């Protein structure tokens, strides 16, 4: 057995990757490893059922266990190599920020936090598969959700020759069976007190489903919310924050310049304190099922509201209207697992082109569960006080309105007369 610690390039970002490897002649499978029960059991199951060497890959997109811990655990279970990749920066630059520029909300409600992390994880898995010469990729998605589609379609778009194994689609184990299997096989697992919910977390949000949430009539219990303070218990005083945008991206909070990851974490903390970002939605899954899910997306809710307001101030009416359609399509492609494609690439190019004037400052008031934009300013503001004022200093030509209205209403008057005759 060889142990190594090294720095290597994964994609365009240098990553500190700790590796530990054994050598054998078996084919390899790269497993998306979370450290949880399902994927821990999957390591051994892939070895036994498919006779493959397992390379475990854990990817940090926001709320991960520590690297040493997760690598050691994967190795202990039997992985021949284990990677821990801190991909937070890349997640923000290449997935969160493009979504923010698109004001992305699936069905107008869900900021796509889980959905945008999938293509990043896919990209990392494919990179590791290439590096390791693996023919297979495995993931822990079930056969009922959207994530299996995002993984499978994403992986095979990036490399159509890779074969995909989804253990949870194949095996018929219940949670109890998994625990028993782990016990029999001496797989070290930490069985936490069973949560009534299934959750997924990253920098952009937390998804929560199952348990009592499966009854859409039941109000989500307080325990479904893990990040945000209950609005009832949030501070009695509102808090105001200022977010500076340059070319459509947030660059400073309350005047302090910050990198993307840092800024999102800072906004997250403030929004959580004020109970902002709770979402309760019955959504349409790609596989045709309606499902009830709650989301906590504190940073996404605040930053999207702020970004959208920046656009309302700086972009012309027709562009805003057209961009709305593009945003909807962007959100659907993201949700539907079609991130890596020409349409998405082209929509992103369009969106990027719209952002050159989306620069300025937005003031947000956070108070007991709500985040409201209460102030905006920009060097590219299209707001002209002379044109909009009802007070002195009015520069709008009121007489022109009469001629405009004559033409604007002409088809309607004409139709009215013509149809009355009939
Ligand atoms: N419904 C969301 C989506 O498809 C989240 C899925 C993951 N949710 C979970 N609780 N594990 O993007």
Distance between the termini: 92 Å
Q: H/E order of the elements?
A: EEEHEHEHHEHEHHEEEEEHEEHHHEEHHH
Strand order of the largest sheet: 5-4-3-6-7
Strand content: 15-25%
Instruction: Report helical residue fraction.
Output: 40-55%
Q: What is the CATH-assigned architecture of the largest domain?
A: 3-Layer(aba) Sandwich
Highest CATH level, the class of the largest domain = Alpha Beta
Radius of gyration: 25 Å
Small molecules held by this entry: arginine
Structural domain tally: 3
Shape: elongated
Largest sheet, if any?
Answer: 5 strands, parallel
SS-derived structural category: alpha/beta
Round the mean pLDDT to the nearest integer and report it. Answer: 93
Can you describe this structure?
The chain has 3 domains: 2-184, HUPs (Rossmann fold, 3-Layer(aba) Sandwich); 225-315 and 357-377, Argininosuccinate synthetase, chain A, domain 2; 393-417, no CATH class. The protein is built from 14 helices and 16 strands. The chain has helices at 37-50, 67-77, 88-101, 113-132, 147-158, 167-170, 175-184, 260-273, 298-314, 317-335, 342-354, 385-388, 398-408, 410-421, and strands spanning 2-10, 13-21, 28-32, 53-60, 81-86, 136-138, 163-165, 198-202, 205-209, 239-246, 249-253, 256-257, 278-284, 290-296, 360-367, 370-377. The chain has a 5-stranded parallel beta sheet with strand order 5-4-3-6-7, sandwiched between helices. The radius of gyration is 25 Å and the shape is elongated. It binds arginine. Arginine binds next to helix 4, strand 8 and strand 9.
């Amino acid at each position: 057995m060889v142990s190594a610690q090294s720095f290597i390039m994964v994609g365009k970002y240098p990553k500190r990757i700790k590796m530990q490897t054994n050598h054998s002649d078996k084919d390899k499978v790269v497993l998306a490893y979370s450290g949880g029960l399902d994927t821990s059991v999957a390591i051994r199951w892939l070895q036994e059922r498919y006779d493959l060497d397992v390379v475990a890959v854990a990817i940090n997109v926001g709320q991960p266990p520590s690297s040493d811990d997760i690598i050691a655990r994967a190795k202990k279970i039997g992985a021949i190599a284990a990677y821990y990749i801190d991909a937070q920066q890349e997640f923000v630059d290449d997935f969160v920020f493009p979504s923010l520029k698109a004001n992305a909300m699936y069905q107008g409600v869900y900021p796509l936090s889980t959905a945008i992390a999938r293509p990043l994880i896919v990209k990392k898995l494919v990179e590791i598969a290439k590096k390791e010469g693996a023919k297979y990729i495995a993931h822990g998605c079930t056969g009922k959700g959207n994530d299996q589609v995002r993984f499978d379609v994403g992986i095979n778009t990036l490399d159509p020759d890779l074969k995909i194994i989804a253990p949870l689609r194949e095996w018929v184990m219940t949670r109890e069976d998994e625990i028993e299997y782990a016990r029999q096989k001496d797989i070290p697992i930490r069985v936490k007190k069973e949560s009534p919910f299934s959750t997924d977390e990253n920098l952009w949000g937390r998804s929560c489903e199952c348990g009592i949430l499966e009854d859409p009539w039941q109000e989500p219990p307080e325990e479904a919310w893990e990040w945000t303070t209950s609005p009832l218990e949030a501070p009695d005083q509102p808090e105001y924050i200022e977010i500076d945008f340059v070319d459509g991206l947030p660059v400073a909070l309350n005047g302090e310049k910050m990198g993307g990851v840092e800024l999102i974490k800072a906004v997250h903390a403030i929004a959580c304190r004020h109970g902002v970002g709770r979402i309760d939605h019955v959504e349409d899954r790609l596989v045709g099922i309606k499902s009830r899910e709650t989301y906590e997306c504190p940073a996404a809710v605040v930053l999207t509201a702020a970004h959208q307001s920046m656009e309302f101030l700086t972009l012309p009416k027709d562009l805003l209207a057209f961009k709305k359609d593009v945003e909807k399509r962007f959100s659907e492609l993201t949700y539907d697992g079609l991130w890596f494609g020409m349409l998405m690439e082209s929509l992103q190019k369009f969106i990027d082109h719209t952002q050159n004037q989306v620069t300025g400052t937005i003031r947000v008031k956070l108070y007991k569960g709500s985040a409201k934009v209460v102030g905006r300013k920009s060097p590219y503001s299209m707001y002209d006080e002379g044109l909009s004022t009802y007070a002195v200093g009015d520069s709008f030509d009121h007489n022109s309105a009469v001629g405009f209205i004559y033409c604007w209403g002409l088809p309607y008057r004409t139709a009215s007369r013509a149809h009355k005759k009939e």
